[in-house]
Design brief:
This protein is mainly α. Helix content is about 60%, strand content about 5%. Strands 2-4-3 form a three-stranded mixed sheet, with helices on one face. It has a two-stranded antiparallel sheet with strand order 1-5. Strand 3 and strand 4 form a beta hairpin. The longest helix has 23 residues. The radius of gyration is 23 Å and the shape is globular.
Length: about 425
């Protein structure tokens, strides 16, 4: 290796290390967490009293200084440097967002990082709010269809933890995350690279278990562990807001490809986008809580859904947390990118998506970094990537099916069944 090439390698590694150091203080969801007594007090009031929430002040100085030092080494003209510059921008924006928690500035920084419901997507001709309404309208069109489906059997958190422990040990071996039962958790389950925590009083169906395995373990845990193995590019171990859309998009796509997603899950994702827009327009926490309560009739779940909208923002409305916009838009982006990679014969890029925490626009830079020997191949891949037979069959069908105009066939089938009575099948045993 020549001296010039070695100097370039060293420069890239230094920038990646500085950005990694800048990310260290950024623990977005932890910084925005609400203590459990806030929910207890709100529900005890019958949902009539606005929650009172305080946050620990965040000092962005260390992050901003690390990013500035990194930027002094970045010349944003090459593919790799443009990627590093995007990381620097997102990291600094996230630090400034956390410094503005509880104010309108929090929302202003957040919408630049995550987007907002009424802002058009850059490369797709749709707004997240339009997408959410389309999901709701499509589900409503199916509401007249009656399926005699037996109620699902529920399993305790302890049973799910036992099954999950076996599954992650089989998949991750000696790097498998711990499975922990905890008394307090804002969701049924949350994952880090070292542990998947499950709320002790939560109940799960078999489909919930599959969703948990594919979403949390096979995507979030896997990209965390793979990122930590990137010794020359430690920034790939950091999940910051600039990577959230791709990471959550991959995780929801994993639910889709594994067959564990349900209409209720899609409805919840759409409801969150609509609720964020309501909050932007001035709805307060109680109004958003009541919106969710109308959808679910479950006070506990409705509180948690409203909390997701208002954490870090202003309880009285006008400045919410827009992170939940990314789930539907991320799913859409991942779907199209995977199809495009397949059509272009670039299966290598499907693997690179899991080499750490990244956004889709990192792929060209990571291809170059892999060729330079600075990016390592991911060790852990979800089953639908490591054994892509089902994925390839589905993509093949999707590609040719989408080329056809099905409207004439829909008209024929509609006419064919117009006078046929609706029949009700017996429930499955």
């Amino acid at each position: 290796m020549s001296d010039a090439i070695q100097r370039e390698h060293d420069r890239i590694k230094t920038v990646a290390r500085l950005l990694h150091e800048g990310c260290r203080p950024l623990r977005v969801l932890s910084a925005l967490a609400w203590p459990p007594e806030v929910k207890a007090a709100f529900l005890a009031s019958g949902g009539q009293t606005l929650p009172e929430v305080g946050y620990t002040p965040f000092d962005p100085t260390a992050t901003i200084e690390a990013v500035h030092e990194a930027r002094c080494l970045i010349v944003p003209v090459t593919t790799i440097d443009l990627w590093l510059e995007r990381q620097a921008q997102s990291i600094e924006q996230a630090a400034r967002m956390l410094a503005a928690v509880g104010t309108s500035g929090f929302f202003e920084h957040g919408r630049l990082l995550y987007g907002e419901p009424s802002a058009p997507l850059r490369y797709l001709p749709v707004k997240p709010l339009e997408l959410a309404h389309q999901v709701q309208e499509t589900i409503a069109q199916l509401s007249h269809i009656h399926f005699d489906i037996a109620p699902p059997a529920y399993h305790s958190a302890a049973e799910v933890a036992e099954r999950l422990e076996v599954a992650v040990k089989e998949h991750f071996g000696d790097q498998a995350p711990r499975i922990e039962l905890v008394d307090q958790l804002s969701a049924n389950a949350l994952a880090t690279s070292k542990a998947i925590r499950i709320r002790r009083d939560a109940r799960f169906t078999d489909r919930d278990y599959i969703q948990l395995l594919h979403h949390e373990a096979h995507v979030h845990v896997a990209t965390s562990i793979n990122g930590k193995a990137q010794v020359d590019l430690p920034i790939l171990a950091d999940g910051h807001p600039g990577t959230t859309r791709t990471q959550e998009g991959l995780a929801v796509y994993a639910e889709l490809i594994s067959g564990s997603i349900e209409l209720d899950r899609l409805r919840r994702l759409a409801d969150r986008v609509i609720a964020i827009q309501m909050a932007i327009e001035g709805a307060d926490f109680i109004e958003i809580y009541r919106y969710f309560l109308e959808q679910t009739d479950q006070p506990d779940q409705s509180f948690e859904s409203a909390r997701r909208v208002f954490r870090g923002g202003i309880i009285t409305g006008g400045a919410p947390f827009t992170k939940d916009v990314v789930y539907l838009t991320g799913l859409l982006s991942i779907n199209y990118v995977i199809r495009a990679c397949f059509a272009a014969g670039r299966a290598d890029c499907l693997h690179l998506m899991f080499c750490g925490k990244l956004d889709l626009f990192a792929l060209p830079a990571l291809c170059e970094l892999y060729e330079m020997g600075l990016c390592r191949a991911p060790r852990f891949l979800p089953p639908w990537i490591s054994d892509p037979r089902h994925l390839l069959a589905m993509l093949t069908f999707t590609v040719f099916a989408n080329r056809l105009d099905i409207e004439p066939l829909v008209a024929v089938v509609t006419k064919l069944l117009d006078s046929a009575p609706v029949v009700r099948m017996p429930s499955a045993s």
